[in-house]
Amino acid sequence: MLFLDIGHNPWLVATSFIVALVAGATGLTLTKDLSKKTVLQKKLSVAMASIALGGGIWSMHFVGMLGLQLPILFYYDAAITLVSALIAILMVAIALLILHFRMRTTGTIVFAGTIVGLGILAMHYVGMAGMQMCSAVYTPLGVISASILSILFCILAFSVAYSKRTNRSILTGAMCFGVAVFAVHFLAMAGTNFVAVSDVVEFGPSISNEVLAIGVILSSFVLFGGFLWVGSTFIGSVPTVTAQPVGPVEPKPQGRIPCEREGAKVFIAPDDVLFVRADGHYTQVYSGDTSYFCSWPITEATKRLLQGGFVKVHRSYLVNPSKVAQFERGKDKGRIRFGVEGVPPVPVSRSHLKDTTDALA
């Protein structure tokens, strides 16, 4: 078997590292302060971060591959190349969903980092499988060392970025992520040889390096645009020194529920609340015909509001009995209405039916 001579364009190698760093900074910044957002906003942020991180893995890989110098012409299968991008995005999305929609512990961070590390590996080797007119020959040492490095660096990146969620930790995590993607690619390439082949197995149309370069440029343009956009997060978060007002400072309302609506923070008195509904790791507070986002989980809301007279009528609902207008009881469950237009009824589960009946008696 005759191996081909391999070289790399140093400028494209350096560019691939920059792309990896920008992708890490963009994706990890997009997921900052999600606890202050609604569930829909969280889902959109996670989706954009998945595209930034997963797309950055793909872009870095193919910027590096554009810098690969072989003595023969070679092409890429468009279908396999697209699949490699989707793999990276989906694997990152799974990891971010675990981090932001489950209880975040050391175990979940390690699990998420492992998933992203495996995603980088899967993207790399699937992308390499798309090469036409030449075939990659791997060494066991190259595959094993790249796998270990990928998983360890990604666990480190997420451990740092999700430790305190400060700008500094996010930037440090982005550095670790960029190094992980870059090091895995070139460590895997160092353990890879290439041979010329005459047989072409096509799953989709072939694309040349020139066409691939256009796609990589477009994806990198989106990444850098996203980086400039999220860069305002760091600029806007720099603390400024302002003059302190003379006189007494108004204290924060005590005993009220901290909520948000349309970006503004409000404090609602429990007596004005109709009911509280669980919303993922957070809650929605209904006061009159308006709902507010609250950063308390339902367990925290239960601990604080039950002692104030609220009743737990369902594992996801707390009700203010003084606001109940109608209670409809069925055989083994019930329903509460508040007589306010636009406010949905609240279900009463079987396990909480007796407590609800006693409270409303």
Can you tell me about this structure?
This protein has 361 residues and is an alpha+beta fold. It has 2 domains: 7-235, no CATH class; 257-360, OB fold (Dihydrolipoamide Acetyltransferase, E2P) (Beta Barrel), CATH 2.40.50.1020. Helices cover 52% and strands 18% of the residues. It contains 9 helices and 17 strands. Helix 3 packs antiparallel against helix 4.
Please state the structural category.
Answer: alpha+beta
The Rg value, from CA coordinates, equals 27 Å
What form results from the Cα inertia axes?
A: elongated
Distance between the termini: 87 Å
Give a count of the beta strands, DSSP E runs of length 2 or more: 17
The low-confidence runs, each spanning 5 or more residues with pLDDT under 50, are 236-245
How is the main sheet built?
Answer: 5 strands, antiparallel
Helical fraction: 40-55%
Share of residues in strands = 15-25%
Figure out the total of helices.
9
Supply database-style keywords.
OB fold (Dihydrolipoamide Acetyltransferase, E2P), 3-stranded antiparallel beta sheet
What's a concise summary of this model?
The chain is α+β, with helices and mostly antiparallel strands. It is built from nine helices and 17 strands. It folds into two domains: 7-235, no CATH class; 257-360, Beta Barrel (OB fold (Dihydrolipoamide Acetyltransferase, E2P)), CATH 2.40.50.1020.
What's the structural blueprint in terms of helices and strands?
Elements: E1 7-8, H1 10-30, H2 39-66, E2 68-69, E3 75-77, H3 78-101, H4 106-129, E4 131-132, E5 134-138, H5 140-161, H6 167-190, E6 192-196, E7 206-207, H7 209-236, E8 257-261, E9 264-268, E10 275-279, E11 282-287, E12 290-294, H8 298-305, E13 311-314, E14 317-319, E15 326-329, E16 334-337, E17 346-348, H9 353-360
Antiparallel strand pairs: 1-2, 3-4, 3-7, 5-6, 8-9, 10-11, 10-14, 11-12, 13-14, 15-16, 16-17
